[in-house]
Structures are given as structure tokens and as C-alpha cells.
Backbone:
């Protein structure tokens, strides 16, 4: 109970970002590096201009030192996101997106927006997508009941956002609900 | 809400009084009824806090009437529009309407308890969305606070939140704020 209130209920967005940083991304290195062992595994070798898959944290680090270009994942493109947004707004269920898309997209757009085509358009699409999905999780709240709730395809950041009050309200409903006894 | 021994909320909710009618004479306990009589006569009515009422009721020394916050008037109002009822007015400032209701429900017999449970659950569900919506709205406003005129209904709804809902409001607001901060921050410097 030594943790501050805000950390007790759920993990912070920054922690999620840290977890997402283990995700592998493609880069085009600008330097040569031998295969190197890290705690999470061995990555490399880097031989420009061959593409290479390394964790996001490493890509971020290299990018900030201007030693690589990050290749945006294929879902981080105007076409893909536009298609998902259309689907999101036209259908009642959540559309399928990479589980940690919000974190990865933010990190890449933060450090390597020059490597992404149409970064501004993508940013606004992501925002629209987020709002459309938020509206849906709000609807999920209406369907909340004391025992279960199913919102498939919800992504990590969204789960994290709704977790504190969904859990609390379900807890309250459990208390208020009374099993009609079979008599 | 829960009946945990260490739960402050439970203790506060137990502090609500319910109206009891004594069935038997109880000697030397007149001070409990607040009067100057030495004894409590049968058929005396006295408001008794819930924590004391358990033993009195279960020992069959008294009957109790369903307290007015769960009475027929409030029920009808809740049925008409859950969001327009000011729960905090029913149980006093910072009161726990749901917690109180839960305790009353636990004392009652099967059928009545189911009735109360339904009232509580419906009220909670009916109000939940508005609580969360407003919390997220306020989180989006940022540190400057409520700029622009807020509507009267929203304002009076907020004033009518009971303790349990207030907690939810705070949770939702805090969570939305955190996500917003993260989305808007560009912390290149951190890396």
C-alpha cells in the first residue's frame, strides 16, 4: 500500500510504452554493427543498406543518434488506417488492430516522423480512430453487468484507460446484485 | 460497500439511521431513544443507527420501516429518470446511498431484498454512463478548469452524486487525464 493511488489501480501509459518497446521493428541502418547480444536476445548484424529487425527501444535510440531510418510497420500508413477507420465507424464491433498499436505509433511518430509518409495525416487518423473506439467502449459501459463484459479487439492502451472505473463499477454491481434464490 | 471490518466506507454507511418500532420493553436503555425516559416502552419509535439495528432487529426486539431514501417516492423518481435524482440529498453530504441500500437489503427478507437490489442496480446502471461521461468531459478540459458555461442539469447531477459515484468519477477522470497527458506529450528529451 506504499504505492500512490494512481499506480495501484493500473499501470501507467509510460509503462505500457516501455513494454511495447520490446516490439520488433524494421530499420534501415546507417552504421555497421556486428551481431550484439542483449538481455532480450541478440540483434544484428547491421549492414547498411540491408533492412534489419530490432526492438523498438533500440531503433529509437539509434534514430535519435541519426544512425538509422525506421521503416514504419505496414499498418502505420494512411491507406490501412483509413480503411480501418471506415470499418470502425460503419460496424458495431471493434476492428482488429495490433494490440499495442497506440504505443508503437506514438513512439515512431515522436522520434521518426520524418521516416513516415504523411505523418500528420496519420496522426489525425489515429486520433479519429481512437475517438471512434472510445465511443464504442462507452457503449460497452451501458452493457456492463455484474459478472462479465466482453469487448473483443480492445487494445492495450484502451483497456488501460477503462480498467480503473470498469473494475470499480463491476465490483459495485456485484455488491448490489442479489441472486434470486431458487425457491 | 463491502462489509469488511476495516472498510471506512462501510463504517460511514452504517452510521445512517433507520426508524425502528420496538416490540418489547427494554429497561434502562431510554437514552438510546434520545429521550429522558429510563426505559424504552414497546411501540416506541426511535431512529437507530444501522450498526446497532442489526442486533435489535435480529433479536426480534423491534421492527423497522424501510428508510425514506428507498421509499416509494424515491423509487418512482428513479424509475422515471435515474439521472435526475439527487442521491447525495437523500443520505446527507458525502453519504453512501448505495452502501446504505446494501445494508438495508441485507437485513430485509428475500422478496423485499430483491426489490431493493433491483432499485439499486437499475439506478446505478442508469447513472453510470452520465458519471463517466462527465468525468471524461472534465478530464478533457485540462488544468484551467471548467471554462464556458456548463448546463444546469449537468451541474445538479454532479451535486447529486453519492460517495460511491464520486469515487468512480475521480477514477475515470484521473485515468482519462493520464491517457490524455501521454497522448499529447512529446517527450523526445526523455529518450
Residues:
Amino acid at each position: 500500500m506504499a504505492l500512490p493511488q494512481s499506480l495501484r489501480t493500473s499501470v501507467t501509459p509510460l509503462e505500457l510504452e516501455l513494454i511495447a518497446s520490446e516490439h520488433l521493428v524494421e530499420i534501415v541502418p546507417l552504421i555497421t554493427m556486428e551481431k550484439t547480444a542483449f538481455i532480450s536476445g541478440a540483434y544484428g548484424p547491421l549492414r547498411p543498406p540491408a533492412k534489419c529487425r530490432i526492438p523498438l527501444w533500440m531503433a529509437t535510440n539509434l534514430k535519435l543518434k541519426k544512425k538509422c531510418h525506421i521503416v514504419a510497420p505496414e499498418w502505420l500508413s494512411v491507406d490501412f488506417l483509413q480503411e480501418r477507420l471506415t470499418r470502425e465507424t460503419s460496424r458495431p464491433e471493434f476492428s482488429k488492430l495490433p494490440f499495442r498499436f497506440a504505443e508503437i505509433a506514438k513512439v515512431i511518430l515522436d522520434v521518426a516522423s520524418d521516416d513516415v509518409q504523411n505523418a500528420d495525416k496519420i496522426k489525425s487518423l489515429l486520433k479519429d480512430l481512437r475517438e471512434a473506439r472510445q465511443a464504442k467502449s462507452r457503449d460497452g459501459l451501458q452493457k456492463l453487468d455484474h459478472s462479465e463484459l466482453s469487448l473483443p479487439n480492445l487494445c492495450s492502451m484502451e483497456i488501460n484507460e477503462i480498467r480503473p472505473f470498469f473494475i470499480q463499477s463491476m465490483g459495485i454491481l456485484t455488491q448490489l446484485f442479489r441472486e434470486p434464490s431458487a425457491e | 460497500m463491502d462489509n469488511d471490518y476495516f472498510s471506512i466506507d462501510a463504517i460511514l454507511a452504517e452510521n445512517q439511521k433507520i426508524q425502528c418500532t420496538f416490540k418489547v420493553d427494554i429497561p434502562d436503555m431510554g437514552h438510546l431513544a434520545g429521550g429522558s425516559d429510563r426505559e424504552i416502552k414497546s411501540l416506541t419509535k426511535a431512529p437507530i443507527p444501522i450498526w446497532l439495528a442489526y442486533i435489535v432487529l435480529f433479536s426480534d426486539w423491534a421492527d423497522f420501516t424501510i428508510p425514506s431514501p428507498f421509499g416509494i417516492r424515491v423509487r418512482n423518481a428513479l424509475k422515471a429518470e435515474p439521472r435526475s435524482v439527487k442521491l447525495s440529498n437523500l443520505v446527507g453530504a458525502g453519504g453512501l446511498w448505495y452502501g446504505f441500500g446494501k445494508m438495508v437489503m441485507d437485513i430485509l427478507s428475500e422478496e423485499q431484498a430483491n426489490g431493493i437490489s433491483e432499485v439499486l442496480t437499475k439506478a446505478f446502471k442508469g447513472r453510470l454512463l452520465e458519471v463517466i461521461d462527465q468525468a471524461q468531459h472534465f478530464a478533457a478540459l485540462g488544468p484551467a478548469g471548467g471554462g464556458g458555461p456548463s448546463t444546469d442539469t449537468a451541474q445538479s447531477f454532479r451535486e447529486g452524486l453519492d460517495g460511491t459515484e464520486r469515487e468512480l468519477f475521480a477514477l475515470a477522470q484521473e485515468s482519462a487525464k493520464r491517457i490524455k497527458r501521454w497522448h499529447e506529450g512529446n517527450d523526445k528529451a526523455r529518450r
Q: What stands out?
A: The radius of gyration of chain B is 21 Å. The first strand of chain B starts at residue 17 and ends at 22. Chain B touches chain A at residues 1-2, 98, 101-102, 105, 110, 113-114, 117, 120-121, 124-125, 128-129, 132-133, 135, 164, 167-168, 171-172, 174-176, 178-179, 181-183, 186-188, 191 (CB under 8 Å).
